[in-house]
Amino acid sequence: MISKRTTGKLKSACVALAMMMMALFVGPAAAQDFSIGWNPRSGDVWVDSYLEDVNRYGARYRSPFIDEMVRYYGAPRDLVTALLAERGWAPGDVYYACAIAQIVGRPCRYVVERWERDHAQGWGAVAQELGIKPGSPEFHRLKRGFVGTYDRWARPIEIDSDLRADFPQRGQGPDGTWLDRDDRGAPAGRGPAGGNGNGKPAHAAGAQPGRGDGPGQGDAGRGRGNNGKGKSKGRD
């Protein structure tokens, strides 16, 4: 006959096992709650749309996303990892916090703490409290930073009207948008430098020099026409 003490131990063990299983299966799902009703409220429609796209990229390509935050935005790797894996932050929020921190000359951790304390009004309000007002040079630099990040990710990005003067050679489609062959049917557009237009990291795109996988490659500059090399030998 099993004693009450043994029964109690078995129940405790079962509860502990159940909690471990919930942490394994429910935890990752909880960390992705940002995908439901997520709204950054930056005060700029273009910024909001690309922060949402950063969510998709960061969720699918976690390592390149973290590397970007660490290398180009000065964020501590352990902080970014903890925000994503343990504290349920959306990649878009992580990106914007570190991008704002870089503009105002503060550590990323400082803006993270401000956001966790004062996020009720959205990123637009927090950014203004930190000195980044809509239409200001600081806000322009914040928007411009998206382009550099997307180029490093080899991910297509549309240049809005505020940024066209900064990137006059970018995009030949309607409204100055970057044309992507897969998404918009353009015959030649393949996304930013080093990419293949599908949003994958540059190192995952499989680009090989001289094989037509990136800009300026393939058959460019290999024409074999009659430019000074004709074989007419005096014929008309």
Please outline the helices and strands.
Elements: H1 4-31, H2 45-60, H3 62-73, H4 77-85, H5 91-104, H6 108-118, H7 123-129, H8 137-153, H9 181-184
Helix pairs in contact: 2-3, 2-5, 5-6, 5-8
Number of strands: 0
H/E element order? HHHHHHHHH
Q: What overall geometry do the principal axes of the alpha carbons give?
A: globular
Radius of gyration: 25 Å
Tell me about this structure:
There is one protein chain. This protein has 236 residues and is an all-alpha fold. Helix content is 50%, strand content 0%. It is built from 9 helices and no strands. The chain has helices at 4-31, 45-60, 62-73, 77-85, 91-104, 108-118, 123-129, 137-153, 181-184. Helix 2 crosses helix 5 and helix 5 packs across helix 8 (137-153). The longest helix has 28 residues, at 4-31. It is globular and about 40 Å long. The model is unreliable at 15-33, 175-198 and 203-236 (pLDDT under 50).
